[in-house]
Predict the 3D structure of the following.
Amino acid sequence: MADAEKGGESTLTVLVALGINLAIAAMKAVAGAITGSAAMLAEAGHSVADTCTEVFLLTALRRSGKPADARHPFGYGKERYFWSLIAAISIFVSGAVFALVEGFRTLFGEPQEQTQPLVGYLVLALAFAMEAVSWLRAMRQVRAEAAENGDTILHHLRVSDDPTVKTVLLEDSAALAGLLLAFAGLGLHDLTGSSAWDGLASIAIGVLLALVAYTMARTNLALLIGQQADRRLLVAVHRRLGEQPEVDSVVDLLSMNVGTDRVLCCARVDFAASLDSTELERAVVRIDGTLREEFPELDEVFLEPVPRNDPDLRARVLARYGHPL
């Protein structure tokens, strides 16, 4: 999938989720006020958090596409990870904390009387149908990207360097699960007359949102601090380097994701001793072009000539990877 096409697909996925979450948040807030249900109010907070998340993700998509400049020679790709991290914090602060507070207030405070539960049931059913539309949209994109890379969906979610669609899919999955929890709390409160069920459902929603926020934050933390590129890409680059006639051995290969589908690659290579300086320069230029043509995700390529038997370099590589060259 081309970068522009993939970026447009991600933007559309986020916009669909934003519109749906905004409408659902309003419906849940009204239903929560009418029914007095803590779980319904927790779900309203959940949808407000999701709406804020989509705004942060749209910011991430826009700002990460800025071209490189003198102050940021490797571009602004990592802004996508920063704003996605802020989205995770938003889910925790405005979603999980609110739901937990509502749950404990209902569970340990004065018993809450439930009114017009039918309104709650109708709103939850409509919200579930609308969330399913957003979830299917995100799942369709994730499935297509996974198929393109020959991955399973779970493996793709684990290794993908694009946190935006993963975030939408996670929050929509949590939203569907949260709606089922709210429905259970509302129904059990209606059947038993005890608001404790409502409070427990709200607490469960808060825990669910906290887990989603933690998963998102952990993903973006790894990308922000310099996670290496997909292992399959590194293996392919290593193999292609080793096949070049001027290369005796690939001594070390360093990489870092500097944005979605953008990789910084530094290779330490033992070139053939017979090469003179002019031949070495030509070899470096040719190999750089070969790698960029075959692997378009390589944003920058650095080739450093080094001797393979250098003891200090060998020790550093062993300390980093824990296996011999």
Summary: The chain is about 70% helix and 10% strand. The mean pLDDT is 85. Residues 3-224 form a domain with the Alpha-lytic protease prodomain-like fold (CATH 1.20.1510.10).
